[in-house]
Design a protein that fits this description.
With 110 residues, the protein is of the alpha+beta class. The chain has one domain. The protein has 3 helices and 2 strands, in the order H-H-E-H-E. The chain has a two-stranded parallel ribbon with strand order 1-2.
Length: 110
């Protein structure tokens, strides 16, 4: 069975993850992240081994600020903090051969 086929059906499939394993690196200090990677026995090339492609959807805090609101109880970052976290998340996957960034510039969200 090919890597991109569902086990149950054998049909081609695309699986999207809302978060990737490297996202954690944006939420802890570098030294702690290195310790976590070592403890989990993650190879430092996990980015390239685990994901066929990475699609980074830029935070609404960057270019779509009116849509960055606090109705979602999990949202706690200010707009500047969200922009910085978004930059860190983007950098975590930078270098992947199929890394796509979807920004908010020129988009109409109404």
């Amino acid at each position: 069975m090919a890597k991109n086929e569902l086990k149950e059906t054998g049909q081609p499939a695309v699986i999207f993850y809302d978060r990737g394993v490297l996202d954690g690196s944006a939420y802890v200090e570098e030294e702690l992240w290195a310790q976590i990677m070592d403890e989990q026995d993650f190879d430092w090339n996990i980015r390239d081994k685990r994901y066929d492609a990475v699609v980074h959807m830029v935070t609404a805090a960057e270019g779509a600020e009116p849509f960055y609101d606090y109705e979602n109880e999990a949202r706690f970052e200010t707009i500047p903090e969200a922009r910085e976290r978004d930059r860190q998340l983007r950098e975590a996957y930078l270098g992947h051969c199929h890394h796509f960034v979807v920004d908010n510039q020129g988009k109409d969200f109404t």
